[in-house]
C-alpha cells in the first residue's frame, strides 16, 4: 500500500483472518482499528476454497444500490430473504459480494467512534464527541473465504491508512465531500 502523503499505513496482517485489530497512532489515547467481515451462509463459506475472493472494496465502490421497489427494505425481511436463499438456493449462491458485509471500525477503549463500510478512496473523519481524533483512509480490502474462517495465507489484502493532526501534512483540512447517505453501502 502506498498511502497518500501524510497517511501512515495501519499494520494489518492479511494472513491474520477477520476480525482483525491493530493499534492506531494517537498521541492522546488508546485508539484501535478493527476490520471485520460477515457472511450469511456458513455452509457455503466452509465449503468454498480458502483463496476464493468473496468481497473487495472496489466491488463495494462500484455497487451503488439504487431504489428497487421489489427489494425488501425491512431488516427482518432482508434476513428472511437471505435465510430462504441459503436454504433453497444452490450451494455457494449466498457467498457473493452482495451478501458478504465488511466494515471498518475505530474504537477508543470499548466505545465505537466510527464505523464505515470498507469503501476505498474516501477519508473518514473520526470524531470523539466534538473533537477530531484523526482520519481513516481505506485503500483496498480484499476478503477471501478462508479469511472469514481463520488465519492463514488466503490471498486476503488489507490496506488502510491513518493520519492524525499531529503530523505535518495531516494538519491540512480535507476538502468537503459531497453529502451521501452513510448507510447506502451497508445494504
Short account of what is shown:
The chain is α+β, with helices and mostly antiparallel strands and 187 residues long. The protein has one domain.
Could you explain how this protein is built, in words?
The protein has one domain. Residues 167-174 have low confidence and may be disordered. The strands form 2 sheets. Strands 1, 4, 7, 8 and 9 form a 5-stranded antiparallel sheet that branches. Strands 2-3-5-6 form a 4-stranded antiparallel sheet, with no helix packed on it. The chain has 4 helices and 9 strands. By secondary structure, the protein is α+β, with helices and mostly antiparallel strands.
Give structural attributes.
single chain, 187 residues, alpha+beta, five-stranded antiparallel β-sheet, four-stranded antiparallel β-sheet, 4 helices, 9 strands, 17% helix
Write the layout of secondary structure elements.
Elements: E1 8-9, E2 20-24, E3 31-38, H1 42-47, E4 53-56, H2 57-62, H3 75-88, E5 101-108, E6 111-117, E7 124-128, E8 131-144, H4 145-149, E9 157-163
Antiparallel strand pairs: 1-9, 2-3, 3-5, 4-8, 5-6, 7-8, 8-9
Mean pLDDT: 76
Per DSSP, the total helix count is 4
What series of H and E elements makes up the topology?
A: EEEHEHHEEEEHE
Count of distinct structural domains? 1
Ends apart, CA distance between termini: 28 Å
Radius of gyration, taken over Cα atoms and rounded to an integer in Å? 17 Å
**How would you sum up the major sheet?**
5 strands, antiparallel
- Percent strand equals 25-35%
Low-confidence stretches: 167-174
What proportion of the residues is helical, as a percent range? 10-25%
Name the structural class.
alpha+beta
- Which assembly state applies to the chains in this document? single chain
Count the E strands: 9
Gross morphology: globular
Amino acid at each position: 500500500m502506498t498511502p497518500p502523503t501524510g497517511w501512515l499505513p495501519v499494520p494489518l496482517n492479511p494472513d491474520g483472518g477477520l476480525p482483525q485489530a491493530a493499534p492506531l497512532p494517537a498521541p492522546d489515547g488508546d485508539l484501535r482499528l478493527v476490520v471485520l467481515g460477515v457472511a450469511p451462509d456458513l455452509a457455503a463459506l466452509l465449503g468454498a476454497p480458502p483463496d476464493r475472493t468473496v468481497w473487495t472494496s472496489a466491488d463495494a465502490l462500484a455497487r451503488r444500490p439504487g431504489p428497487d421497489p421489489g427489494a425488501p427494505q425491512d431488516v427482518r425481511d432482508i434476513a428472511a430473504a437471505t435465510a430462504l436463499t441459503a436454504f433453497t438456493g444452490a450451494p455457494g449462491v449466498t457467498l457473493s459480494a452482495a451478501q458478504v458485509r465488511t466494515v471498518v471500525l475505530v474504537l477508543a477503549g470499548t466505545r465505537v467512534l466510527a464505523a464505515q463500510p470498507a469503501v476505498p478512496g474516501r477519508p473518514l473523519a473520526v470524531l470523539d464527541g466534538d473533537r477530531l481524533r484523526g482520519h481513516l483512509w481505506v485503500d483496498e480490502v480484499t476478503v477471501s473465504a478462508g479469511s472469514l474462517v481463520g488465519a492463514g495465507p488466503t490471498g486476503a489484502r488489507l490496506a488502510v491508512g491513518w493520519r492524525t493532526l499531529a503530523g505535518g501534512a495531516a494538519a491540512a483540512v480535507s476538502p468537503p465531500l459531497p453529502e451521501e447517505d452513510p448507510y447506502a453501502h451497508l445494504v
